[in-house]
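DM from R.C. (forwarded with permission)

"hey, sorry to bug you on a friday — could you get me a structure for this? deadline for the figure draft is monday and I only need the backbone to look sensible"
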Amino acid sequence: MAGSDEGSSRRQRLEETSGKDPHPTALREAAFSHEWEKEWRVEKALFTIESKRGEEGFHEAARLLNMPLVLLPLAALLAREDELLTRSPRVAALTGVGSVAEAAALVGAGPGSLLLGPRITSAHATCAIARNALDESP
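My reply, with the result:
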């Protein structure tokens, strides 16, 4: 959704049909004190690095998907750097971590989590999915 007008027009159509934002409580930001580790007990969420706080595409995606957006500190992502399946020198130079998507997915899924595969990229977004260590499904 980042960099695209598609999400805005879709949300506008949803608002017009219902008269209000269809996902008014989907967006909440975590603090730097690792409060997210205690307060986020959800099965699904969008996780990314805190430095992307101002990128409207993330906020719009969270609203459209009715998922919380959790902004993570760089230190948390770096702690999972050795578990990444892919690395981008460009992303590492910009953010400090080889794959923000993969590291954020791992951190968001919790200790011992595993990536379901390498990140998926498009012209406008990058995504990675991880499962919690307690999840028994493949």
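R.C.: lifesaver. The helical segments are 6-18, 35-39, 56-65, 74-78, 89-95, 100-109.
me: no worries. Residues 47 and 108 are 6 Å apart (CA to CA).
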